[in-house]
């Protein structure tokens, strides 16, 4: 069954065409979350779904060649650190923990900056967690 | 008026589909079918959330419930088995009574709940009016949901992100294969790992 899915021409072609748009849509959801539905969590899941689709169609070896899976183990922690780091940054800048208003001269600009950064942290962690869990499952079952 | 009637019809349709999917999930023995049906269940729930104007929740439900968790459940089936073992065919009386009573109590509880969309409901008189009034000039983000999640409730979202992080780390610890095959000396293994960390 695993071999047969790799030889599905329609699946491969459609996945190749769709993949850039899925990843682009994830970035759109990530950075447009202030204005439209979405945010870091949803964007992270969509980005991970793109990578998972690629792995399903082209196989785990090909996916490992495209992206080093160890990157995700770093990103996993980096997202949370970025989020908490913004909180500490606010603390050092003279505000409360996670009070973004002190991050810039204008409180509203500070809020925008803080929200952008913490959403990025959420997105990184969620993408990394989803992809690494999937990779862990696949690399265990495939051999 | 006609629009509201139409939305009512859509509601009834979606809830009927939801209930039907849930019943089929209970009845079906093939776990592969059950996982796919659970994905469909999530997708229908996402449709319901959209009808209730909770687009952010619907978005999450569609992406996580119908997308990622279906894939992860399929991965689990690949590692375990895709047939459910037959349980005892006898109807268990005591659990049935407990479940029926709990269900009846829950339905009785919903009778006291405010009508959906009621502006006088207590939930709309706590902090929600302040968020709606203040977030445009305090946070300046058009999507109030983002303003609440990321700014007013920043602590909660940090906690949620940490939960996701811990869950991911836990699964990796349980499932990930060691990079080196067993058989190498433990001391050598440690030094090798250190070298790898240093070089990488």
Account of the 3D structure:
The complex is a heterodimer of chains A (143) and B (200). Chain A is mainly alpha-helical. Chain A is 78% helix and 0% strand. Chain A has one domain. The longest helix of chain A has 35 residues, at 107-141. Chain A is elongated and about 60 Å long. The model of chain A has no long low-confidence stretch (mean pLDDT 88). Chain B has 200 residues and is an all-alpha fold. Among the domains of chain B are: 7-84, Four Helix Bundle (Hemerythrin (Met), subunit A); 121-180, no CATH class. Chain B has eight helices and no strands. Chain B has helices at residues 2-27, 31-51, 55-79, 93-110, 128-138, 144-152, 154-175, 186-199. Classes of the chains: A mainly alpha (143), B mainly alpha (200).
The CATH superfamily name of the domain at 7-84 in chain B is: NADH-ubiquinone/plastoquinone oxidoreductase chain 6, subunit NuoJ
* Terminal CA distance of chain A: 14 Å
Radius of gyration of chain B: 24 Å
Average pLDDT of chain B, rounded to a whole number, is 83
Poorly predicted residue ranges of chain B:
182-200
Instruction: Give unreliable regions of chain A as ranges.
Output: none
Which second-level CATH architecture of the domain at 7-84 in chain B applies? Up-down Bundle
Span from first to last CA of chain B? 65 Å
Strand content of chain B: under 5%
Radius of gyration of chain A: 18 Å
Task: Note the main sheet of chain A.
Answer: none
What is the count of structural domains of chain A? 1
| Chains forming the largest contact | A-B, 52 and 46 residues
Helix/strand order of chain B: HHHHHHHH
Shape of chain A: elongated
């Amino acid at each position: 069954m695993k071999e047969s899915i790799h030889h599905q021409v329609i699946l491969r072609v459609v996945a190749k065409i769709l993949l850039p748009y899925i990843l682009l849509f994830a970035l759109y959801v990530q950075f447009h979350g202030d204005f439209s539905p979405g945010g870091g969590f949803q964007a992270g899941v969509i980005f991970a779904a793109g990578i998972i689709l690629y792995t399903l169609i082209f196989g785990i070896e090909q996916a490992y060649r495209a992206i080093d899976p160890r990157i995700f183990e770093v990103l996993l922690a980096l997202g949370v650190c970025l989020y908490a780091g913004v909180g500490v940054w606010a603390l050092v800048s003279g505000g409360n923990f996670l009070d973004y208003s002190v991050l810039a001269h204008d409180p509203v600009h500070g809020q925008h900056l803080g929200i952008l950064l913490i959403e990025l942290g959420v997105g990184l962690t969620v993408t990394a967690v989803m992809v690494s869990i999937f990779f862990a499952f696949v690399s265990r079952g495939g051999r | 008026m006609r629009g509201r009637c139409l939305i009512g019809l859509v509601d009834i349709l979606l809830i009927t589909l939801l209930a039907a999917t849930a019943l089929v999930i209970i009845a079906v023995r093939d776990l592969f079918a059950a996982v796919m049906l659970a994905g469909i269940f999530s997708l229908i729930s996402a449709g319901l959330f959209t009808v209730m104007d909770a687009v952010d929740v619907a978005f999450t439900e569609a992406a996580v419930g119908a997308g990622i968790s279906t894939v992860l459940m399929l991965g689990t089936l690949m590692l375990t088995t895709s047939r459910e073992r037959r349980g005892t065919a006898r109807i268990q009386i005591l659990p049935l009574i407990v479940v029926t009573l709990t269900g009846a109590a829950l339905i009785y509880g919903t009778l006291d709940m405010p009508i959906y969309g009621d502006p006088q409901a207590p939930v709309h008189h706590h902090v929600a009016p302040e968020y709606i009034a203040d977030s445009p000039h305090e946070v300046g983000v058009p999507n109030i949901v983002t303003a609440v999640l990321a700014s007013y409730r920043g602590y909660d979202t940090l906690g949620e992100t940490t939960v996701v992080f811990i869950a991911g780390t836990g699964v990796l610890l349980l499932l990930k294969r060691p990079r080196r095959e067993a058989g190498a000396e433990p001391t050598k293994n440690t030094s090798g790992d250190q070298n790898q960390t240093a070089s990488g």
